[in-house]
Design brief:
There is one protein chain. The strands form 3 sheets. Strands 7, 8, 9, 11, 12, 13, 14, 16, 17 and 18 form a 10-stranded mixed sheet that branches. Strands 4-3-5-2-1-6 form a 6-stranded mixed sheet. Helix 11 crosses helix 13. The protein has 4 domains: 190 residues, no CATH class; 114 residues, no CATH class; 250 residues, no CATH class; 160 residues, no CATH class. Helices cover 54% and strands 12% of the residues. The chain is of the alpha+beta class. It is found in: Cell membrane. It is a multi-pass membrane protein. This is ABC3 transporter permease C-terminal domain-containing protein. Pfam families: FtsX (PF02687). Keywords: Cell membrane, Membrane, Transmembrane, Transmembrane helix.
Length: 736
């Protein structure tokens, strides 16, 4: 009988082995499905970028075929991407996929979702922002995500918005890149979710570990060669692993379908985004059973080398303190990875994998240490039984807590990063919350302000647009600040400032004007302020205000032309959507603080969703692996527990001992994992916050939640020991 036939025969006659095999297959299926989903995320972002890359001007190349600009707009909280183009040659321009034609002057192509919105809202709130006639719609092949709001506006070259870039065509799909943040999160997910899945697989395989070990040892003593024993184990494990991998492949389309419903970057996904290349899929599906088989075969050392010892179930060798070195070594690797300047995230993922792996190495030693303390100091029967178990088999005792420890590490890491990311939000404090502004060219500021006011009057709105310039103030000691050029009463209305306006030309925000000069362009020597210009105080309205100085137009020296101009209007007493439409006459991006904060909140919302999904998955996997490991622990010691119950030991006392086995190492390990997760989170944050010098990590009391919940999950999962003990009591010991 070959090993495969023997494995099927064991499955037919042994119900406990069947249960273990089914659970192992489920664990492999979960791991395979998660790996296929997480590895597909970078490919999904690549597919998104390839469809939408044409919406961005290609500043890396130049040409003479067309002019292009891109602007972002917003309508009732939904972002709109506006692309303005104009042909400058008679040669045909290659069109991106999903764009049916190149719009001529006065023609507009819109996405289906934008087309519906334009007809659902009054023209003054949306449609009037796009001058011309809608002549077609973009297909899904031209959109980043379903329901994206996009407008492709055609112009004559002379009517193009400010800042138009001349190029030979739209940006090609080959320039598309993977979303770096989601790519990093996918790599982190592979490490922190697949490892608990493999722990679930290992826990499932332990359900019949003792019985299988005795069976293999008997075969070895009866003359079976090491190769034959290895073949039998490979066949038994391979059946579950292969079935699980194929099951994971079968359910992966369902997981991908669910993933398309999770928003990221402003919208959901197209179903085709999550398609993995066939070679990658085959590699991952084959790799999962191979990993399980390697782990199973590696666990045969004792049976192969010492079958008599396996049958006699000798006490394992005590663990050595050198295991504790794994944690600082992994920490150093992770530290150098996050402080390095590698453009690839692989060093960080390697360091994170080592940190997670170090928990598996250090955990059994901590369990052994806890067991020694309880054996020496505890005198109650349940505590003594639990302590003796932790001393005799710390690896097996820790196995029930391994998944929970990893879940706590993940939770602590997430609860360190999320408040820190939220602390980075805010800013954008030039204008008041109710103000809309538009950057314009100096030679167009007056005309665009007049056009905006004409529109506002035609729409019946109270708001009026104001022209604002920026100049540079330089002192004799080298100080250099930017000043907004506008009347004091308008500055009080539009800027985040509290000013005490008085008649006469003045500069607000500079204490002593002696030696100060005014220039319109960077690098110019500047012109002195006229005699009689007063210095007056400037008080920020709040900490978000970023304006340093305000210069009254009457104080601007003759011949100084501001380098930058903006047109701004307050929406107080007016319809914000209509005011936005009136300012959109130039086709540029209309800025407002709510848009700035909405982008930040959208990013934070994406991270929250991903974090919650990851934590729920990790908690479920941890709970399942802990419950299965506890049940396996009872089955491994069926003879011992049967003898104790036959001698009169109550099931209630044994249940307390088993719960203590789960709680004691879980308490120490979860506290350690919580601290590790916090440190890993701080390391990742230090890498992500680059470019935000004033950002600092935020630690909250919620960091204790994963530790408390992890301990609760471990104890709750250990409650399966009571039914398992009752089953042992109901079965005759002769079955062994």
């Amino acid at each position: 009988m070959n090993p495969v036939q023997l494995a099927f025969r064991v499955l037919r006659v042994d119900g406990r082995t069947r249960t273990s095999t089914i659970l192992m297959a489920v664990g492999v299926a979960v791991a395979t499905g998660l790996v296929l989903l997480l590895v597909s995320l970078p490919f999904a972002t690549q597919a998104r970028a390839e469809r939408s890359i044409w919406q961005e001007p290609d500043y890396r190349s130049s040409g003479s075929s067309m002019l292009i600009t891109q602007a972002t707009d917003i309508s009732h909280g939904e972002q709109i991407v506006r692309v303005d183009v104009a042909s400058t040659s008679d040669s045909p321009i290659a069109l991106p996929a999903g764009v049916p034609r190149f719009p001529g002057a006065g023609e507009v192509l819109v996405s289906p979702a934008l087309f519906e919105r334009m007809h659902a809202l009054p023209a003054a709130e949306l449609a009037d922002r796009f001058p011309g006639t809608v002549v077609g719609t973009l297909t899904d092949d031209a959109l980043e995500y379903p329901d994206q709001l996009v407008a492709l506006v055609g112009h004559a070259p002379e009517t193009m918005p400010t800042g138009a870039y001349q190029t030979n065509g739209f940006r090609p799909a080959t320039d598309a890149e993977v979303d770096p943040l989601l790519g990093l999160l996918a790599g982190v997910g592979v490490v922190v979710l697949v490892v608990p899945s493999l722990v679930l697989v290992a826990s499932s395989s332990r359900l019949t570990a003792a019985r299988r070990e005795r069976r293999l040892a008997a075969l070895r003593l009866a003359g079976a060669t090491p190769g034959q024993v290895t073949g039998i184990v490979a066949a038994e494990t391979g059946i579950a692993a292969v079935v699980g991998a194929l099951l994971g492949l079968a359910v992966s389309p369902v997981l991908h379908g669910l993933a398309t419903l999770v928003p990221w970057g402003g919208g959901t996904w197209q179903a085709s985004d999550f398609q993995l290349p066939a070679g990658v899929t085959v590699l991952l599906v084959v790799a999962m059973p191979v990993l399980v088989l390697v782990a199973a075969v590696a666990g045969l050392r004792r049976v192969v080398s010492n079958p008599v010892g396996a049958v006699a179930a000798h006490t394992p060798k005590p663990l050595r303190a050198w295991r504790l070195l794994a944690l600082p070594v992994a920490g150093l690797v992770f530290f150098f990875a996050v402080t390095g300047h590698s453009s690839s995230g692989l060093p960080v993922l390697l360091g994170l994998l080592l940190v997670v792996g170090s928990a598996v190495v250090v955990g059994p030693w901590l369990t052994f240490a806890v067991g020694r303390i309880f054996v020496q100091r505890w005198r109650k029967p349940a505590g003594l039984l639990a302590g003796r178990r932790l001393l005799d088999d710390p690896r097996g005792a820790y196995r029930a807590s391994a998944g929970v420890v990893l879940a706590v590490l993940i939770g602590s890491m997430a609860l360190t990063l999320m408040p820190s990311f939220e602390g980075m939000a805010g800013g954008g404090g030039t204008y008041r919350d109710s103000v809309l502004s538009l950057d314009v060219a100096p030679d167009q500021a007056a005309a665009l302000t007049a056009q905006a006011n004409e529109r506002l009057a035609a729409y019946g709105q109270r708001a009026r647009a104001t022209e604002i310039g920026e100049v540079r103030l330089s002192s004799v000691n080298g100080s250099d600040i930017v000043a907004m050029v506008m009347p004091c009463d308008q500055a009080t209305q539009l800027l985040r400032l509290n000013l005490r306006c008085q008649p006469g030309p003045a500069v607000y925000g500079v204490d002593n004007l002696a030696g100060w000069r005014v220039s319109g362009l960077s690098g110019e020597p500047g012109v002195p302020l006229a005699p009689g210009v007063q210095s007056r105080p400037l008080a920020p309205e709040d900490s978000a205000a970023s304006v340093r100085a305000v210069l009254d137009p009457a104080a601007l020296p003759a011949g100084v032309v501001p380098e930058f101009f903006a047109v701004a209007a307050t929406t107080d007493g007016s319809d914000p959507e209509v005011v936005r439409t009136a300012l959109s006459v130039s086709g540029g991006s209309v800025y407002s603080r709510d848009v700035y904060l909405a982008d930040q909140q959208s990013e934070l919302g994406d991270l929250r969703r991903v974090t919650i999904i990851g934590l729920v998955a990790a908690a479920v996997l941890a709970g399942c692996s802990a419950a299965i490991a506890t049940a396996g622990s009872v089955m491994d010691r069926r003879r011992t527990f049967g003898a104790l119950m036959a001698a009169g030991t109550p099931v209630r006392l044994l249940s307390r001992a088993l719960r203590a086995e789960a709680a004691l190492p879980a308490l120490v390990a979860t506290i350690s994992a919580g601290a590790m997760g916090m440190l890993v989170g701080l390391g990742l944050f230090s890498m992500i916050k680059e470019g935000h010098e004033r950002a600092s990590a935020v630690l909250t009391p919620w960091l204790l939640a994963p530790v408390v919940l992890g301990l609760g999950v471990a104890v709750l999962a250990a409650s399966v020991c009571t039914p398992a003990l009752r089953r042992v009591r109901a079965e005759p010991l002769a079955d062994e």
